[in-house]
């Protein structure tokens, strides 16, 4: 994955200010940075908790993309643990596929604040899907 990866071109990734930071090729762990939009603030001035799932879902989608050789993620479930408030400052998410199968992937992610403190953890189950408009593969195609 690079700065020009299609993952970073999605409207949702652009909205969240997503940028590629690094990739560990051996574990398919991706690190992405995000800049929370002003509209993501709660009444306490932190990132609203449910919206943190969006940052983590973006990074976990990138991990599925890498772990499956370029397929898209369709999230089946996301489990989110909020560990501390997240200020409206740049944040990073590290995500990796725990197990990437042909159809189902299990992914995990950790979200860190600007000071490197762990603020949230997530796990997800995702269905690997083809790109829109792609021709189906296999004997039933």
What does this 3D model show about the protein?
- There is one protein chain.
- This protein is of the alpha+beta class and 141 residues long.
- It has one domain: Roll (Thiol Ester Dehydrase, Chain A).
- Helix content is 17%, strand content 38%.
- It has two helices and six strands.
- Strands 1-2-4-5-6-3 form a six-stranded antiparallel β-sheet, with helices on one face.
- The longest helix has 19 residues, at 49-67.
- It is globular.
- It starts with 10 loop residues before the first helix and ends in a 12-residue tail after the last strand.
Which labels suit this protein?
141 residues; alpha+beta; Thiol Ester Dehydrase, Chain A; 6-stranded antiparallel β-sheet; 2 helices; 6 strands; globular
Topology, element by element:
Layout: H1 11-15, E1 19-24, E2 29-34, H2 49-67, E3 72-82, E4 91-100, E5 104-112, E6 118-129
Antiparallel strand pairs: 1-2, 2-4, 3-6, 4-5, 5-6
CATH level 1 class label: Alpha Beta
Number of domains: 1
The helix tally amounts to: 2
> What is the CATH T-level topology?
Thiol Ester Dehydrase, Chain A
Computed over alpha carbons, the radius of gyration is 15 Å
Describe the largest sheet: 6 strands, antiparallel
- What share of the residues does DSSP label as strand, in percent? 35-45%
Instruction: Characterize the quaternary organization of these chains.
Output: single chain
Separation of the first and last Cα atoms = 29 Å
- Lateral strand order in the biggest sheet: 1-2-4-5-6-3
Shape: globular
CATH architecture: Roll
Low-confidence stretches: none
Arithmetic mean of pLDDT: 88
- Please write the string of helix (H) and strand (E) elements: HEEHEEEE
Number of E strands:
6
Helix content: 10-25%
